[in-house]
Design brief:
There is one protein chain. This protein is an alpha/beta fold. Helices cover 45% and strands 17% of the residues. Strands 7-6-8-10-11-9 form a 6-stranded mixed beta sheet, with helices on both faces. Strands 14-13-12-15-16-17 form a 6-stranded parallel beta sheet, with helices on both faces. The structure holds NADP nicotinamide-adenine-dinucleotide phosphate. The site of NADP nicotinamide-adenine-dinucleotide phosphate (NAP) has 26 residues, from helix 13, helix 14 and helix 18.
Length: 459
């Protein structure tokens, strides 16, 4: 297994990495040294001659040419800002993020001859770059190790322990495994989970899962496990189908689960169990993605991006959202981000008014659909989902050229889409939302940007 160390300058990647490599009997490589050797110049000279873009290109080449296995690699602090580098670094590897506070880093790198990347004073630059890079560091890492107040040997020791035993204590894992024992899991998942962190060669090193009730019908495990195989990530994606989200989150902490896709009925309730919520998820009021690093769980929402992406060419359109639940909230947020004029229509009009009030848009009962005459319709109700064969709209309601997006994805051609197609509308199936939200979710959990065509092919 290849070990990659990432993090800001001054977090001890080279010192702790060299000690870890010695401990494991592996060579240590430093990507900055490789770049200097290949260019025959010191990094400050490369920056002076080629600027930061020239340096980044050399860095990309050096990372793409790294040997595939049994080596410890320290990377430059900005390397993981580029998803292509993350893809190359993560293949067949475990990635550790070494962390330290702003002041500690500024003190550790004081007097360095590295050129400024922001033109600001060194102490200010550390803070600015740390804040800018933090999301990329968290996405790219499998495990986060705090280095504050620890000698490099202790940091190396901690990484070796995590590699052998996982990021949590034995007692925690035993408690998490007791929870797993209660779940309806395939036997192969159960075996893989039991072997986890046992230091057994090819077994997965980490877990991701869907959390819902019910969720055994989900397409996510098949898609994610194929993506993990495609990108060489040592992960198992399993299914945590259980009625109590608090118990699921507790087990996620105990087992050090890296990522969760959260589905019905937990998207709202999960937020209160996490350590941090991304601003988009907070505004929508729902979390569908949880990422864990260093024992800290953060919540994100990618559903809104799944609605936004297929509609991005319809900036400023007049839109109707049918429904007033969680999917409707994500849809409204997406449509407003495209400057659309949004009206929310719902079976229970009071709920439509409440939701519309949160976002400052109009509301009404389903019967007022004709009065709006929208350019875009988004169905965010379960109406039309297998085995239901009904539609909230008839052909008379729809004008030719209207865009109709049904968030329901089973079946792919819902009764609403069949009617809309006949009426000459542009139709977008719910699988489009699934594809785009899953792609964004995979990015949050791994830092890898999967091409849209590949997700489409695997779905
Ligand atoms: P939800 O919170 O339960 O909301 C359901 C909404 O649909 C409510 O406003 C409800 O109206 C309305 N509704 C339910 N049955 C109805 C009926 N027979 N006639 C009229 N309105 C009805 O559900 P959600 O989480 O927002 O999800 C809604 C749908 O979005 C799901 O069924 C799913 O198919 C889809 N979805 C798709 C994706 C994807 O990736 N494609 C992702 C998420 C969700 P009342 O307020 O009157 O009860």
């Amino acid at each position: 297994m290849r070990i990659i160390l990432t993090g800001f300058r001054g977090t001890g990647k080279t010192t702790a990495g060299t000690i870890l490599a010695e401990k494991l009997g592996l060579p240590f490589l430093d990507t900055d040294r490789i770049i200097e050797d290949r260019a025959g110049k010191k990094i400050p000279v490369i920056f002076r001659e080629k600027g930061e873009p020239g340096f980044r290109e050399l860095e990309r080449q050096a990372i793409a040419a790294l040997p595939p296995g049994d080596v410890v690699v320290g990377t430059g602090g900005g390397a993981v800002l580029d998803p292509v580098n993350v893809e190359n670094l993560r293949r067949g590897s475990l990635v550790f993020l070494l962390q330290a506070g702003e002041e500690t880093i500024a003190r550790r790198i004081g007097g360095s001859d590295r050129p400024s990347l922001t033109g600001r004073a060194p102490a200010d630059e550390v803070g600015e770059l740390l804040r800018e890079r933090q999301p990329a560091y968290l996405r790219a890492a499998d495990f986060c190790i705090g280095t504050e107040g620890k000698p490099p040997a202790a940091v190396a020791e901690e990484m070796a322990r995590v590699m052998q035993e996982g990021p949590t204590s034995r007692l925690s894992r035993e408690s998490g495994m007791r929870f797993i024992g209660k779940l309806p899991l395939p036997e192969s998942d159960r075996t893989a989970l039991a072997a986890l962190h046992g230091g057994k060669g090819d077994e997965p090193a980490g877990i991701c899962a869907i959390a819902g009730y019910p969720c055994s019908h989900s397409r996510s495990p098949a898609l994610w496990n194929r993506l993990f195989a495609r990108y060489g990530l040592p992960y198992l994606y399993t299914s945590l189908e259980w009625p109590d989200i608090a118990e699921i989150i507790r087990a996620a902490r105990e087992l050090g689960i890296r990522g969760l896709s959260v589905t019905i009925p937990f998207k709202e309730a999960v937020a209160g169990l996490l350590d941090g919520i991304d601003p988009d998820a907070r505004a929508i009021g729902a979390v569908n993605t949880v990422v864990q690093c260093g024992g800290v769980l953060r919540g994100y929402n990618t559903d809104w991006l799944g609605v936004r992406e297929p509609l991005r060419d319809l900036h400023g359109a007049r839109a109707v959202v049918l429904g007033a639940g969680g999917a409707a909230a994500a849809a409204i947020y997406a449509l407003l981000s495209l400057d659309m004029e949004v009206t929310v229509l719902n079976r229970t009009p009071e709920k439509a008014e409440q939701l519309a009030g949160r976002f400052g848009c109009r509301a009404g009962p389903l019967t007022s659909f004709r009065a709006v005459s929208p350019d875009v319709v988004v169905n965010a109700t379960p109406v039309g989902m297998h085995p239901d064969r009904s539609s909230l709209l008839s052909a008379d309601d729809l004008d030719e050229g209207t865009t109709v997006f049904d968030l329901v994805y089973t079946p792919p051609e819902t009764p609403l889409l069949a009617i809309a197609r006949k009426a000459g509308c542009r139709v977008i199936p719910g699988t489009e939302m699934f594809i785009h939200q899953a792609r964004e979710q995979f990015f949050h959990v791994t830092g890898i940007r999967v091409p849209e065509a590949l997700v489409r092919e695997l779905v």
